[in-house]
Write a structure and sequence with these properties.
Elements: H1 3-7, E1 21-23, E2 27-28, E3 32-33, E4 37-41, E5 49-55, E6 58-66, E7 69-78, E8 85-92, E9 109-117, E10 126-133, E11 141-143, E12 150-157, E13 166-171, H2 172-180, E14 187-195, E15 202-213
Parallel strand pairs: 10-12
Antiparallel strand pairs: 1-15, 2-3, 4-7, 5-6, 6-15, 7-14, 8-13, 8-15, 9-10, 9-14, 11-12
InterPro entries: DUF3047
Protein name: DUF3047 domain-containing protein
Keywords: Signal
Length: about 230
Amino acid sequence: MRVGSMALVFLLGSAAFGASSIPLPFGSIQDGISPQWQAQEFRGTSPTHYELVEEEGTLALQASSQNQASGLVHEVEIDLATYPILQWRWKVENIIPDGNALTKAGDDYAARVYVVFPHWFRPNTKSINYIWANHLPQGQVVPNPFFSNARMVAVQSGNQHAGTWITQCRNVYQDYREIFGSIPPKAGAIALMTDTDNTGSQARAWYADIRLLAADSHADPQEYCP
């Protein structure tokens, strides 16, 4: 997917927080996806289908993509020095066999979660993109082939855990420092995307329980993963 387009469209939201966590709820099955999660579609590509379902007893956002691409964006201003830990759950049905994190033609993923750092000069917008990689080794960090200021972190890889709910915890503050070499500015949005348009393939994934947790900025994220 043309991740550069996603990284360039965010406007800062604002909020004041004093709690131990900032939940980003998806909504309800009865009322549908919360309007706080705004669709981000791309010209020339039909959108991924997102809907709220009950999946193995969990309220989840189900994403189904068949040669499609679009994301959902939650604009929220976050001081990562106070809320450095991003926690979420996800599950994929399958990876994308022809996916290749190093090429534009292979830039598709069953599941990915973004943290976006908007800049008034849009080409300087940065993002960290936590991906369920297809073949990229777990832990590897690479620039997105469409947009070098978007860095992709392979937090899962391959089909070994496909079909299983996985809880992920990342210290975004520390990830930003390691990736970009500076103290992070405030984040402006959390986004997610399931996309298969570059490879013309199909994928299905589920997302649940996305939140930011208050902690010391040097905290070990695994201490926050059950």
